[in-house]
Amino acid sequence: MPDRDVLQKTEMRTNSLDAEALLERIADWLSPQLSADSGVGISDVSTPDAGGMSSVTLLFTATWSVGGVERSQRLVARLPPDDSSYPVFPSYDLGLQMDVMGTVAGHSDVPVPTVIAVDRAGERVGAPCGVMTAVAGQAPTDNPPYVFGGWLYDASPADRRALQDATVAVIAGVHGIADPLTTFRQMAPDGDALRAHVAQARDYYEWTRASDGLRIPLLERAFDWLEAHWPADPGPAVLSWGDARPGNILYDGVTPVAVLDWEMTALAPRELDLGWVVFIHRFFQDIARVFELPGLPDFCRPEDVVATYESLTGHTVRDLDWYIVYAALRHGIVMSQIKRRMAHFGEEILPDDPDDYVMHRVALEQLLDGTYAWD
Fold first, then answer.
1. Rounded mean pLDDT of the chain?
2. DSSP for 97-139, written as a single string
3. Counting C-beta atoms within 10 Å of the first and last residue's C-beta, which end of the chain has fewer, N or C?
4. Does any domain span residue 358?
């Protein structure tokens, strides 16, 4: 068994921003946005425990007055990673994310934070910035993975299943937004949505290797597999959340109260999100197996996710195995860039074998070979 405390958070550098100076500029910018009599005070600053590496997130309490009446609210500021942070993704369209959240709120019952203000070009803050209401709730953690322990791990099987079904209902709600090509016209692809999505994934892979020229044979083999097994009929595009998983939802008990992290949103087939939510849990579950821990083998099983989704939507899920492989490939590209990033900051040594840049190498190899064991 690997020699480490599985409940210890792995520290990874995410940015080098001067948070104090940044918050001063945010306070100045928010004053007219909140119709404040004068300035906006900021206090109780923190960062989320489960924050990722694709953006900068700051939680704070804003205090101001309107017409002499004092107000106070817990808010969240979201910014792209700074130039020195060795970004995980080639671009970060924060304005689009905020637009999508606002549109989702106006066209569905999917719970999303209320967007307060957006500085799209960073003219007032110094970097693109979106400010939203903070929502009280808890999310399963990625670091350490929730399959190692914590509130979801300790929940009863019935509560975990209720949370799983509620998570699938969120995905169904996102997909149920009518006329997505018009409602989200700024994201409408040219031609076939799935072809465009995979082409973008290929571009992302090429971007990750631009600095070192490294080819990762396993990822390129996965691209070839996708082409050889392309779905006969991917179906019409819907709004895809993109990073669909419990770790990006805040829950009150087992009830979703805020759907977060829309960086990977797109217009794509429904199965894209279903394959992602299934694979990402299996990614964590496989890590638990490495540490000889039970994990949560009964959580987000493909057959259960499909059954719930079909009962909610009436849609027959097709080619899920293909979308699970695609999820593993997409996640593999992300993990390869995170590996480079950690090496850049001296947190890890780069492997000699390029395929070891993919943390879930064995799982992806088995998915391609048709030998992956789900139970």
1. 93
2. HHHHHHHHHHHSS---PPEEEEESS-TTTSS-EEEEE----B-
3. C
4. yes
CATH code for position 101: 3.30.200.20
369: CB partners within 8 A, 6+ apart: none
CA-nearest of 235, 243, 247, 3 to 138 is 247
The C-alpha atoms of residue 161 and residue 164 are separated, in whole angstroms, by 5
Is the domain of 200 the same as that of 70? no
Q: Is residue 138 part of a domain?
A: no
Judge whether 243 counts as a catalytic residue.
yes
Beta-bridge mates of residue 91 = none
Domain extent, residue 42, equals 19-133
Report pLDDT for 52: 53
For 87-108, the pLDDT digits (tens) are 899 988 999 999 999 999 999 9
pLDDT the model gives residue 86: 85
d(CA 269, CA 102): 22
Q: End of a domain among 133, 161, 192?
A: 133
Q: Write the CATH number for 174.
A: 3.90.1200.10
**Rounded CA separation 359/355 (Å):** 9
With a cut of 60, say whether residue 244 has pLDDT above it: yes
> Does 260 lie in the same domain as 359?
yes
Enumerate residues 6+ apart whose C-beta is below 8 A from 337. Answer: 88, 89, 208
Which amino acid belongs to residue 41? G
How would you classify the pairing of strands 238-240 and 266-268? antiparallel
Q: Under a CB-based contact definition with an 8 Å cutoff, are residues 138 and 159 in contact?
A: no
